[in-house]
Write a structure and sequence with these properties.
- This protein is of the alpha+beta class.
- Helix content is 30%, strand content 24%.
- The protein folds into 2 domains: 235 residues, 4-Layer Sandwich (Glutamine Phosphoribosylpyrophosphate, subunit 1, domain 1), CATH 3.60.20.10; 190 residues, 3-Layer(aba) Sandwich (Rossmann fold), CATH 3.40.50.2020.
- The protein contains 19 helices and 23 strands.
- The strands form 6 sheets. A 7-stranded antiparallel β-sheet has the order 4-3-5-2-11-10-12. Strands 6-7-8-9-13-14 form a 6-stranded antiparallel β-sheet, covered by helices on one side. A 4-stranded parallel β-sheet has the order 17-20-21-23, with helices on both faces.
- β15 and β16 form a beta hairpin.
- α8 packs across α9 and α9 crosses α17.
Length: 493
């Protein structure tokens, strides 16, 4: 049974009460099986985007492009599709939209014919001044085919009066604002770019004589590549003739990576700043336990997101760790109409309780974050219906009170539970016995071993503090996300 794109999006939002990263990127140079390796890399990055996927390859003369709605495994696992993508150079993209509608025309990588040759772009992140730039470009005669902010970058490169591609790119980068990582492919170069604050991630890998750019190290592992280093904040790295070079055109400043890469976004086995994300999440749970003194029977995680923190909490508190909730990994995303009757069963499609484990027990329920509270409410109710005596909810990050503008799909500020309610009101809303969050100080102690630098925080932690490293220009100027194209979003042209 098919569901329209609009209804799909509604169903997704109903099911997922989590922050969602926009996308994952992967690019490789000088490899005989470039497109197949990109497909494998996108498989590893599937958690970063499930709405669409695409690959563009270059065979030395022509570019080849294949884009699909849905999952990588549904489209790029057959030999026929990969054969349509010849060449030793290729880039790919998994999409989870934060700007622009869900439509085939918005799926990346984008390709454009420039007077200096072809250009293909994959973008992870969000531009905070995209609407302003787009309006100016349209007034100046630019023709847009998509509603994605990524096309703004392509247009700026195309319209630059500079001669060399790198100079055109720098010209464009100095006009855009936001959190972004870019993987780009020209006739001669594979290029990786990270925003001046390093908000969105990008790493470099090597596979024999081939170089790789990708969002996370887990994508390097799946293709057998070795991790070289992270692309630094404000750095442009380019591969040409099997050689790597880099430039840093922006004024020097300390990085402020997105704190949620550590808390939730990155796959647990991915390396961030020298450690697996799993280790950071265990430490968050350990610090959370130090801030709590609960006389409870067991520690239960919300699977899968709360598992590492729950392990850390249990180890430090010397309380038993139990799988009081079991996740069903095989629930189809669009197999059923989102009627009101079905919505009431929402959580049970994905989670069930181990009734004999939780019955008559006082439970510490651990999760990585609390966004709108709708899912947590249903989980607490499920545990009580299964016979739990008490359910104490503990969250391994501070209260989320502010939205993101750098590529994270999340509710508006008014929809965030912690913005609308104080701790007591939130506890009543989710019907828990008690509710506590990890303090901001505990968060920084877990992730850095240091106190938060109030003058220049070590992370982009605006979710909790409202301190945005980059001004969200479009939002502050009063510009609304409006109909950017007269072409229907249902059209795939």
């Amino acid at each position: 049974m098919r569901i329209s794109l609009t209804r799909k999006k509604k169903l997704r939002k109903f099911k997922l009460d989590k922050l969602r990263e926009e996308c994952g990127v992967f690019g490789i140079s000088n490899h005989q099986d470039a497109s197949a390796l990109v497909a494998l890399g996108l498989h590893a990055l599937q958690h970063r985007g499930q709405e669409g996927c695409g690959i563009v390859s270059f065979d030395g003369k022509n570019y080849h492009s294949e884009k699909r709605q849905g999952l990588v495994g549904d489209h790029f696992t057959n030999e026929e599709t990969i054969k349509k993508l010849p060449g030793k150079f290729a880039i790919g993209h998994n999409r989870y939209s934060t700007t622009g509608e869900t439509s085939l025309r918005n799926i990346q990588p984008f390709f454009a014919d420039l007077h200096i040759g072809g250009l293909s772009v994959s973008h992870n992140g969000n531009l905070t001044n995209a609407l302003q730039l787009r309006e100016a470009l349209v007034r100046d005669g630019a023709i847009f085919r998509t509603t994605s902010d990524t096309e703004t970058i392509v247009q700026l490169i195309a319209k630059s009066n500079r001669i060399k591609f790198i100079d055109k790119l720098i010209d464009a980068l100095f006009q855009i604002k936001g959190g972004y990582s870019l993987v780009m492919m020209t006739n001669k170069k594979l290029v990786g770019v990270r925003d001046p604050y390093g908000i969105r991630p990008l790493v470099i890998g090597k596979l024999k004589d081939s170089y790789i750019f990708t969002s996370e190290t887990c994508a390097l592992d799946i293709v057998g590549a070795t991790f070289v280093r992270e692309v630094e904040n404000g750095e442009i790295v380019f591969i040409e003739n099997n050689k790597i070079d880099c430039i840093k055109p922006f004024p020097k400043q300390k990085p402020r990576p997105c704190v949620f890469e550590y808390i939730y976004f990155a796959r647990p086995d991915s390396l961030i700043n020298g450690k697996c994300a799993y280790e950071y999440r265990k430490k968050l749970g350990s610090e959370l336990s130090k801030e709590n003194d609960l006389n409870a029977d067991m520690v239960v995680p919300v699977p899968d997101s709360g598992v590492p923190a729950a392990i850390g909490f249990a180890e430090n508190s010397k309380k038993p760790f139990e799988l009081g909730l079991i996740r069903n990994h095989y629930v189809g995303r669009t197999f059923i109409e989102p009627t009101q009757n079905i919505r009431s069963l929402g959580v049970k499609l994905k989670l069930s309780s181990t009734k004999t484990i939780v019955k008559n027990k006082s439970i510490i329920l651990i999760d990585d974050s609390l966004v709108r509270g709708t899912t947590c409410t249903k989980i607490v109710k499920m545990l009580y219906e299964s016979g739990a005596r008490e359910v104490h909810v503990r969250i391994a990050c501070p209260e989320i009170k502010f939205p993101d503008f750098y590529g994270v799909d999340m509710p508006t500020r008014e929809e965030l539970l912690a913005f609308k309610k104080d701790n007591s009101e939130m506890c009543d809303y989710i019907n828990a016995k008690s509710l506590k969050f990890l303090s901001l100080e505990g968060l920084y102690k877990a992730l850095t071993g240091e106190k938060r630098n109030t003058n220049y925080p070590q992370f982009s932690d605006h979710y909790f503090t409202g301190q945005y490293p980059i001004e969200p220009t479009d939002n502050l100027s009063g510009l609304k996300i409006k109909q950017l194209s007269l072409l229907s979003g249902k059209s795939n042209n």
